[in-house]
Amino acid sequence: MRHHVPVHAGGRGLTRLPTIDGLRGLGMIAIISFHAGLLPGGYLSIDLFFVVSGYLITRLLLASSMPPTGGSLASFWAMRARRLLPLLTLFLGVVLVAAPSLSDAADLTDLSDRALGAAAFVGNWQAISSDGYWQAFGEGSPLEHVWSLAVEEQVYVLLPLLLAVLARVRRPVESLAAVALGGAAASMAWAVVLFEQTGDLDRVYLGTDTRAAALLLGVAVAAIEVRRSRDGLAALVPPMPLVAAAMVGMAASWVLLLGEDPFLWRGGMALHTTAAAIVVCALVAPAEVSPALALLRRAMSWGPLVQVGILSYALYLWHWPLFLWLDEDATDLSGVPLGVARVAILVPLAWLSHVLVEQPTRRLRIPPVRWLLAVPASLAIVVAAVAVAPAPPPPIAEAGEQLSVPSSGRLLVIGDSVGASLVPGIAAVRRVDEPVVESRAIPFCHFHPITTQYVLLDGTFPAKDCTDGKSFIDVAVEGLTANGPADVLVLFGNPVLDSTPVGEDLADFCAPDMLALRTGPLEELVERTAPQRVLLLTTPRLLVENHSLGATTQLEVDERLACHQRAIDEVAAAHPDRVAVIDLAGWLCPDGECTEVIDGVELRPDGLHYTEQGARPVARWVLDQVAALGGGDGEEPAG
């Protein structure tokens, strides 16, 4: 049996595909879940959007005019302007006016430039030249996500011109499929080469040349579909086992594949993009090909999923700044209640944007040439919005120092169970251009000299050695001797709990002899690890209500914490060239009020140790502070 694909004449006559809308809806849910901190690899669903977009645009171009003429090219570009610019212009204006009141000053340093770059569809290259995608998402720029629109529109400026060139050959549609497949393969290969040569994740992730593969695979699917239909051939349907494998692979990637995973850049993204193309190819095939395919199409045509797909453009634009602005501080909510509140505002906002902006502008009967004038008009409106938007408050200067001793290019993490709980987060969020991490943090590894007994909580316990009778200082020196130079990153929790030797007065935790017990180990560490840099992390406030501390009160814990911080500050002040304080406590617990949930992820359920997921945003901040310390570049570590 042969199944022919209907391709109606005229762009407006093309049949809408609920399965494709449903697939877009699935991708949109993945992106929102990623930005909500629920789906670590959800960012990859952008590839799904790219494949779908390339397929739909090519399907439209091949159905409207072949070969393309000057008039049809103008009509196509005008259609893209009518589709994107009205809502994008409104969105940018709202962000520019609202952001100074709702965003941190540090997030607004280049907001005007980003808005202009978004309106001109060059935002991806702008992000590459500044701080890029991964860092900016940590900082919270409300326009960081519009880079994907730039990639699409840059490709769509060239695609009609390519069709016009290929119209001169004997079999233009077949040629388009071949060029698209070859271009996709070249783009994938170039992404791997560029990563291996530079290690620049932002350049590989955001570049049009490295991300065009997904769009081109969509172009190829549409060209093959149209060619087979015109030749009276059966539709090209991937085998269901292959489709099932592609869907399982995509789902696994969304759950497991972090943006810093080297596998992603060494072929993982290419595999995901290919899987997305296989799924799209299956969903545009006739449902009667097989019962399994009919079931898949029925699932992707589920009403709510289709509606999310129809609203996907508005949802995509509004969700990221909305998530930034509706955070825990603004709402006093966290976890599921915060997610529900965000969605309760996002969905109506997207629906109103679709009904009041997108749909009316699509129905306007305006000549294509006038629609093309919308591009400079949109830029003019954005410039005007920049001019009238309130000036952002000056950024708050952060205390910090520049170390004169160069970084070694490695981090050696020393500490107890608190330091050890942070290490998985560092490994997960570390970028390839950041220091290699080695952990020598050991649970129960004691900060104080192991010859003294201490009051621990409400009992008396001896100080425990870290391993084989060694102190944490011995462990640090051992790590440097074994594996070479490293910046020594120190984080302990137990000095906050067990800072008083047996028989001492518990009332004065900061008495001179008590302070000496704190500064002594740190001074010895600095001396024995010379000439390496020593980076001392302050211990965030331990929340007694979350931790089983017996008779210990919050006041006692806070006093011990203050004394430990004083010791850290004194040691750093005595060695300003190579010892720095990274005030994790000040960042995580400003004014004594600790942030315990970020994007729905609980950081320290017991009030002290970080969870695997909760360690990631904390580790990202710590690595950024390490980078800000300066001191020159160390040698690239071998291997």
Short characterization:
With 639 residues, the chain is mainly α.
Describe this structure in words.
- This protein is mainly alpha-helical and 639 residues long.
- It has 26 helices and ten strands.
- The chain has helices at 18-35, 45-64, 70-102, 111-119, 123-129, 132-139, 147-166, 172-198, 201-206, 208-230, 240-256, 262-283, 291-300, 303-310, 312-325, 328-331, 335-363, 368-372, 374-388, 417-429, 472-483, 494-497, 512-528, 554-574, 584-588, 615-628; strands at residues 410-415, 436-439, 453-456, 459-462, 487-491, 500-501, 534-537, 579-582, 597-598, 601-602.
- The strands form three sheets. It has a five-stranded parallel β-sheet, sandwiched between helices.
- A hairpin with a 2-residue loop joins strand 3 (453-456) and strand 4 (459-462).
- The longest helix is centred in the N-terminal third of the chain and has 33 residues, at 70-102.
- It is elongated, with a radius of gyration of 29 Å.
- Mean pLDDT is 78; it is low at 1-13, 135-139, 392-400, 450-463, 499-507 and 632-639.
Topology:
Blueprint: H1 18-35, H2 45-64, H3 70-102, H4 111-119, H5 123-129, H6 132-139, H7 147-166, H8 172-198, H9 201-206, H10 208-230, H11 240-256, H12 262-283, H13 291-300, H14 303-310, H15 312-325, H16 328-331, H17 335-363, H18 368-372, H19 374-388, E1 410-415, H20 417-429, E2 436-439, E3 453-456, E4 459-462, H21 472-483, E5 487-491, H22 494-497, E6 500-501, H23 512-528, E7 534-537, H24 554-574, E8 579-582, H25 584-588, E9 597-598, E10 601-602, H26 615-628
Helix pairs in contact: 1-2, 1-13, 1-14, 1-15, 2-7, 2-10, 2-12, 3-4, 3-7, 3-15, 3-17, 3-19, 4-5, 4-19, 5-7, 7-10, 8-10, 8-12, 10-12, 11-12, 15-17, 20-26, 23-24
